[in-house]
Design goal:
CATH topology of the largest domain: Quinone Oxidoreductase, Chain A, domain 1
Mean pLDDT: 98
Helix content: 10-25%
Oligomer: single chain
Number of domains: 2
Low-confidence stretches: none
Order of helices and strands: EEEHEEEHEEHHEHEHEHEHEHEHEHE
Number of helices: 11
Bound molecules: NADP nicotinamide-adenine-dinucleotide phosphate, zinc ion
Amino acid sequence: MKSFGYAAHDKKSALVPFRFERREPGPKDVVVEIEFSGICHSDIHQVRDEWGGSIYPMVPGHEIVGHVTAVGGAVTKFKVGDPAAVGVIVDSDRVCENCVAGEEQYCIKGAVETYNKLDYEGKPTYGGYSNNIVVDERFVHTISPKLNSAAVAPLLCAGITTYSPLRHWKVGEGSKVGVVGLGGLGHMGLKFAHSFGAHVVQFTTSESKIADAKRLGADEVVVTKDAAALAKHAGSFDFILDCVSAPHDVNQYLNLLRLNGTLCLVGLPETPVSVAPFSVVANRRSLAGSGIGGMKETQEMLDYCAEHNIVSEIELTSIDKLAEAYERVVKADVKYRFVIDMATLPKS
Ligand code: NAP
Ligand code: ZN
């Protein structure tokens, strides 16, 4: 099937228009015409090959919202015209114990990511900065027409990546929770932790974000260069979600955890983290990590958002302004997720 999008051809050049082929839809496949595509910091890490192993040409994008334009004969969940969404995963082996448990992101064979991966036939996958995508219905989500669909797109990565660990570590009423970094992931973590009833402290390097953090649900905001403000919270948190995209000192957050507290990394800076043993030995603390979420939990999160009227705070942008959007994300200047209006993609 013919597709058209924007691709990176190496780690340094700007993304440019790119014509490519996707597979013809099979019996279980859904064709989604893409209307909105979020810009995740992971797109930038991978376009710039900051994690290594990038595959070019690369069409990024794993926060995809659109509507169904064709379905295979065996599809049961969707019909033509339905709104639909695709996130970070488009396939997994479906039979390993992790897939069976609904944790396809930890598929033992290795889940097939939406872009910058090879599928099980060895062909590269291409993501959402494009006009359409073909995906097995098992990896396509239903979305509520009640919500603004542009603002739903970031839920497919930033949403589930923060929802899943907050649920796994049972954050709720009575929990004291920290969120580090008010970017795409951080602002969703803040909204969910607040919605689950926790007392939420937002940590930020950006003084200019204090008022927004409070508006989005923070009970307290700490500007991280203020050592005295951090010290006031020593030994007091049940759970801290670290959503920072660049190298930083995790020990200062570990030291804020109470007995048995957990610091969970979702941010993926390119360099290893350095941990002082005393930071975890004291108070029997855990340093953990979490990757996106499985299909069942992603749908649960989307349904929760529809019920509680939760969406991302977005800046809508056009496909020809990717370079500017990337620069602003890297400068921590996005409020709080860029979403590409795919109607701005040239028709040919
Ligand atoms: P983002 O929108 O750029 O947000 C990152 C935030 O981190 C910034 O807004 C900023 O918040 C803070 N920050 C940036 N540079 C910093 C520095 N040098 N020191 C301290 N804080 C800094 O990025 P995102 O899209 O939310 O993604 C965040 C990270 O999560 C990325 O590394 C991404 O690859 C990763 N990720 C992981 C998963 C997963 O499954 N685990 C899924 C998606 C993304 P303040 O201005 O508030 O300080
Ligand atoms: Zn992402």
